[in-house]
Amino acid sequence: MKRILVSIKRVIDYNVRIRVKPDGSGVVTDGVKMSINPFDEIALEEALRIKEKGLAEEILAVSIGPVDCQQQLRTALAMGADRAVHVQTDVAVESGCAAKLLLKLVEREQPVLAILGKQAIDDDCNQTGQMLAALWGRPQATFASKVEISGDRAQVTREVDAGLEVIEVDLPAVITTDLRLNEPRYVKLPDIMKAKKKPLETIEPSALGVTPVERLKAVKVDPPSMRSKGVMVKDVSELFSALRSKGLV
Amino acid sequence: MSKILIVAEHRDGKLNPAIAKCVHCASQINGAEIHIAVFSNEPSSVAADAARISGVAKVVTVIHPAHAHALASNIAPQLAEIAKGYSHVFGPSTTFGKDLMPRVAALLDAPQASDIMAVEGATRFRRPIYAGNAIVTVEVVAGTQLVATVRTASFEPAAVGATSAPIEDATFSAALPTHTRFVSISAARNDRPDLQTAKKVVSGGRALASADNFKILYQLADRMGAAVGASRAAVDAGYAPNDMQVGQTGKIIAPELYMTFGISGAVQHLTGIKDARTIVAINKDPEAPIFEVADFGLVGDLFQVVPELEKLLASNG
Ligand SMILES: Cc1cc2nc3c(=O)[nH]c(=O)nc-3n(C[C@H](O)[C@H](O)[C@H](O)COP(=O)(O)OP(=O)(O)OC[C@H]3O[C@@H](n4cnc5c(N)ncnc54)[C@H](O)[C@@H]3O)c2cc1C
Ligand SMILES: Nc1ncnc2c1ncn2[C@@H]1O[C@H](COP(=O)(O)O)[C@@H](O)[C@H]1O
């Protein structure tokens, strides 16, 4: 069966104003809205479109983390994923460990594509997809803004600093999504009901033969230094003089 | 003692200025011995540039026709091979480094610290999380090799030295994978300064309302010798190409002057300009969040402000 694996990370919603805890132990998460990492929503949308074109048969959504991740997996199922796997753990999972866990699932499920977000908007690591590709010994097409599948290959347009780069990769491969790849669909109410009946498997990391270890310890979390508010000028000539006096124009 | 390997990013025979910033970052680790690795089909000019960066003790070149275009799947296995024996492996936090370094980290089974913005010791670094809304201090377990990308906006470039470091060739017998192939790159070429290194940047948002209207910013930028940036909204709408996007998922820049026209100031945009020396905001909404961070704010219609500003620049030349 032609399968696509999509990873779904539960993160603080991107609209939430982040507050650092006064004791420096992390950021406030109590009572804060949680969502699917925006890049992962795009990954799932892309998988759905590939399936709708008849180029894949099954979409498997995977999330690693505490029991609450199942909410995001249910949303993924409502969006159209066929099946979900929740790798349940309460300890912090570094990108390297997430990649090892995903590799085990890739070996078990044999997907033609693994689509991940290019970065999780909580840790901003931008690592997991590349690490999975390396461990799997397969191609990586990161920061994708266009994906075209033909036969056992994919042509991927990548958003790079210089502009747009096109590469061709043999399948199976790992793709990581950039924001302009697509616009994810909205979940419809009947689909939420249907999603409740879709299979969601829960598995411990140890059952996959992986023990999460912390190799990069977070010592403390600080708020960023704030820029102080400057002055308002009344018109363009005042602005011009201010910049001129600083030697900027 | 720390031994640090930095992978060189280059294009058209020129070393990316981000590498001198990586060297500066690495040199903040006490007693570090710094080497640079150059992967290329024709490494000589890049290697020569790298060898002149002050603080660099050695340059290693890896010559292969496949390195005519930098592909992570080709560079990573060779870089991982060379990187054995180094305590740290650094790359720039550009799309090149972001693509490559995690692949290397996985091959080395090393953890990676992305976007390091400050060095607190050989095992301790600071990096932004949550789009820069929090800064985490991370510590790698002692004795563990560390891979990292360097947030170039946080470091000045290391100086060009008076002497050149030795350049050595490394050879590999193992075949490179063939599963990934370069097809093309479409890079918008212009004579304007490069966005990532420009001293002045003029930037436009959704308010520009069309690609055609963006021309008034190009004109202003040319008058000022500035590069041009854009918000994600402007890029998504097709008013500006993707390589102009500034922010969390675009470019992180630190110019001396950053002027925004019709940009609201979303956190994801601001994270890209936190280190800009002077921020100027022109927005018609006095409540726009951009004014909270601007050194100079002007409430006004950009379509009136830009021509006026250009006129003043022209007459005061
Ligand atoms: C995961 C994620 C990552 C993101 N990454 C980025 C990123 O890297 N970079 C980025 O920029 N955004 C990013 N965004 C998007 C960001 O949240 C904002 O949506 C975006 O920055 C808004 O762009 P804007 O300021 O141009 O548009 P708007 O927010 O629509 O603001 C337009 C502004 O123009 C003003 N205006 C209108 N007409 C005029 C006029 N005639 N003269 C003067 N002012 C006028 C308005 O008052 C308004 O303030 C990201 C979002 C997400 C979810
Ligand atoms: N705990 C997790 N659960 C599911 N997916 C994850 C997890 N961590 C990382 N990923 C995937 O890897 C991508 C990149 O994450 P990161 O390397 O942390 O920036 C995310 O967009 C997800 O697709």
Structural features, described:
The complex is a heterodimer of chains A (249) and B (317). The longest helix of chain A is centred in the N-terminal third of the chain and has 15 residues, at 38-52. Chain A is globular. In chain A, a hairpin with a 2-residue loop joins strand 7 (140-150) and strand 8. Chain A has 6 helices and 13 strands. In chain A, helix 2 packs across helix 5 and helix 3 crosses helix 4 (128-136). Chain A is 27% helix and 30% strand. Chain A has a single domain (3-245), classed as Rossmann fold (3-Layer(aba) Sandwich), CATH 3.40.50. With 249 residues, chain A is of the alpha/beta class. In chain A, the strands form 2 sheets. In chain A, strands 9-8-7-10-6-1-4-5-11 form a 9-stranded mixed sheet, sandwiched between helices. Chain A has a two-stranded antiparallel ribbon with strand order 2-3. Chain B has 317 residues and is of the alpha/beta class. Chain B has 8 helices and 18 strands. In chain B, the strands form 4 sheets. Chain B has a 7-stranded parallel sheet, sandwiched between helices. In chain B, helix 3 (72-83) packs across helix 4 and helix 5 packs parallel to helix 8. The longest helix of chain B is centred in the N-terminal third of the chain and has 14 residues, at 95-108. The model of chain B has no long low-confidence stretch (mean pLDDT 96). At the A-B interface, helix 3, helix 4, strand 7, strand 8 and strand 9 of A face helix 3, helix 4, strand 7, strand 9 and strand 10 of B. Strand 9 of chain A pairs antiparallel with strand 13 (180-187) of chain B. Bound molecules: flavin-adenine dinucleotide (FAD) and adenosine monophosphate. Adenosine monophosphate is lined by residues 7-9, 37, 39-40, 63-65, 93, 95, 98, 116-117, 119-120, 123, 125-129 of chain A.
